[in-house]
Design a protein that fits this description.
globular; mainly alpha; 7 helices
Length: about 150
């Protein structure tokens, strides 16, 4: 059930494979941040604002009802925060709500990302993950309310 989520996690692990130092991991995270999209100003609302991040970050989500999958877009004003967001969004965007809820980001631990982050950045990463799960839960309930 979670094959695509696990495969995407392997892709992220490969991306970090050559990183030997915390600085190299940070640089890879920053490079991920450069791939973030840009939200329209009208999409940057209190509802899409992620609390707990050191920088201003917004995450927009929507459910493709026909396919039963959730998509995420984010924008942050700091590249490291943007990269941390993309670290999760690349894995969970395009997945079913149930998958997002039940497939933990074990790759984060495997890559020892938390050890390279300041406490504030680690809290931000956790806040992004919580946000993705909250949105997934909302869509899961919406899909199963009958």
């Amino acid at each position: 059930m979670f094959e695509s989520c696990l495969e995407k996690q392997k892709v992220i692990i490969e991306l970090f494979k050559g990183c030997k130092t915390a600085e190299e991991k940070y640089q890879t995270i920053i490079e991920l941040g450069k791939t973030q999209g840009h939200l329209e100003d009208k999409q940057k609302t209190d509802d899409t604002f992620v609390r707990g991040c050191q920088s201003r970050m917004f995450i927009r989500s929507w459910l493709d009802k026909e396919k039963g999958i959730v998509f995420f877009e984010s924008e942050a004003d700091a590249l490291i925060s943007a990269g941390l967001g993309m670290l999760l969004i690349r894995v969970y965007s395009g997945e079913a709500p149930e998958t997002i809820l039940k497939c933990p980001p074990t790759y984060i631990e495997e890559l020892h990302i938390h050890q390279t982050l300041t406490p504030g950045r680690a809290n931000g990463l956790a806040a992004v993950y919580v946000r993705l799960k909250q949105d997934a839960l909302k869509y899961y309930i919406e899909q199963n309310k009958d």
